[in-house]
Amino acid sequence: MVADGKIEIFFPVGKGLVVSLFTSTILSVTAGAVFYFTSLQENYLPSISTVILVTSTLLGGSVAAKSAGSRGLLQGMSVGTAFFILLLLLTVLAGNQMSAIVVLKKLFYCVLAGGVGGIAGISFR
């Protein structure tokens, strides 16, 4: 979207954030069902949750970049940052605690995956 020569970033990022949340929810429910109905041990949970986080952010960044049509890296990284802030807020509201290292790792994963998704979204449109 263009308004007065400037690209509006909020609509594409919002769209990408919704895709990230939807993807994360679907993948989390699927993973929960797999853990519940199979003998898969819970020690795989941190790795699977990281894959879900990266996949969700990557898809959201891609959708945002496709929607904006340009500045894929910026669009994707914005989705990654917004997704991280939302997840951090939900974590704090749920009363869970995370170490600073874990928080920084998740921020890194979200921003990196969002940026890669944004570049891919522009490349494959």
From TrEMBL:
Transmembrane listed as a keyword: yes
One Pfam family linked to the record: DUF3792
Keyword annotations from UniProtKB, A to Z: Membrane, Transmembrane, Transmembrane helix
InterPro entries, per the entry: DUF3792_TM
Domain of life: Bacteria
TM stretches of this protein: 16-38, 44-65, 72-94, 106-124
Protein name: TIGR04086 family membrane protein
